[in-house]
Amino acid sequence: MQTAAISKPIDVVVAGYLGVDLTPGFNATRAVVPFSELFRPGKLIETEGLNVSLGGVVANTGLALRRFGQRAELMGCVGNDALGDMAVARLAQAGVTNGIRRTAKAGTAYGLVIAPPGMDRLFLEDPGCNRCFNANDIDYDVVRQSRLFHFGYPPLMQALWINGGTELQTLLQRVRHLGVITSLDMTLPDADSPAGRADWPSILAATLPLVDIFVPSIEELLFMLDAKLYARYLAESDGGDMIAVIPTEMYERLADRVLALGIKVLLIKAGPRGAYLRTGNLDTIRLADCVGCPHGSWLAPLPVEAGRFCNACGAGDCAVAGFLAALLNGTDVITAGRYAMQAGRDNLYGPDALSGLQEWAQMSSLVKGSENTP
After folding, report:
1. Who contacts 64 (Cβ-Cβ below 8 Å, separation ≥6)?
2. Is residue 238 part of a domain?
């Protein structure tokens, strides 16, 4: 892999899904029980406060990258409504003044995030105007000035996945023609929605050859490549964490299929199991001077202090931000994976996606310290 020596005014453009998250607070000392037992019909569940924050890849990964010292530009869409006003105001406070479009086509996306301690989250999500987002909503003149383009959550963006994902292909092709490295994240669609019934194997087969870095979760990747097997593991989990019942060899099998489509770097997020990292041909990606891991490598999650845990909202997005920031800084792929684990763990310590994150210098000290630990 060649080092990216090209000087550009922007490190990364983060585009795609943007919304507002409403997250009820849960007492960290609450006993961990299966989701189905916690949320029984007719049961009252006492919560503590309500956190209102920005959500989606644009806010979570984009603002985390800026916190990590990257020159990041954000591109997304909100409605002409009160939630849209709040989103724009909060992004302005973070120093983001361009790239966020307002539309009258639909309202601002919002999500009700149910995130009890010790278990994965449940989302009630209205994608709002993200359904209308298309290839023309990207400012390619800005993208041209960047080293990397990261896009997220196309399953919640209807205009991108309908018709076999032709609009998503168009978007990525236009970025590729600018000579910019492409990165793609996913989200899990509602299995009973039109997005959940889309032909995702065909969409990925047409889309992934245009992607350099792919960072899905294991649930997302399994659902999109083998929905029947996903349903089987979901049933076996019996209301618990599905990741616990997915065998290790499944990560390898799915990685084989993804890398065969031309992906250079694959990071499969696996929640409490950490992540699985695999690389293909790194000759053209120009992000770091390093040796890849063509046979796969597991990244162990960092221990979590139970008393500091708030919720896991945005943990995967922050892990991706840590991973991409490290690659942009010229870090090798394995070490970049350690930054991903650090950022993903730190996210758990804040009431929203960003509050628990450390500054890059602090993260680097911890990552380097862990490398020297026997």
Report:
1. 317, 318, 321, 322, 343, 353, 354, 357
2. yes
Residue 253 sits in a domain of what CATH number?
A: 3.40.1190.20
Give the domain extent around 94: 11-32+50-371
Cα 338 to Cα 172: distance, rounded to the nearest angstrom: 28
pTM of structure:
0.92
200 located within any domain: yes
Mean pLDDT of the 113-127 span:
80
Residue 285 belongs to some domain of the structure:
yes
State the average pLDDT over residues 248-269. 97
Q: Number of structural domains, the chain?
A: 1
Q: d(Cα 250, Cα 117) in Å, to the nearest integer?
A: 27
Please indicate whether residue 252 or residue 97 has the higher confidence score (pLDDT): 252
* Closest by Cα among 96, 68, 212 to 150: 212
pLDDT tens digit sequence for 154-164: 999 999 999 99
Backbone angles phi, psi at 150, to 5 degrees: -115, 125
Distance CA 320, CA 278 (A): 15
Using CA atoms, how far residue 110 sits from 87, 172, 308, 358, in Å, is 11, 26, 26, 27
- Kindly list the distances between the CA atom of residue 10 and the CA atoms of 169, 254, 287, in Å, as whole numbers in the listed order: 23, 33, 14
Other CB atoms within 10 A of residue 54 CB: 24
Helical residues (DSSP H) of the chain, grouped into ranges:
35-38, 57-67, 82-93, 140-143, 158-176, 200-207, 218-225, 227-237, 248-259, 315-328, 333-347, 360-371
On the question of pLDDT at 3 being above 50, the answer is no
> How much is the pLDDT for 4?
44
H helix and E strand count, the chain = 12, 13
Report if residue 114 sits inside a domain: yes
316-336 pLDDT, tens digit each? 999 999 999 999 999 999 999
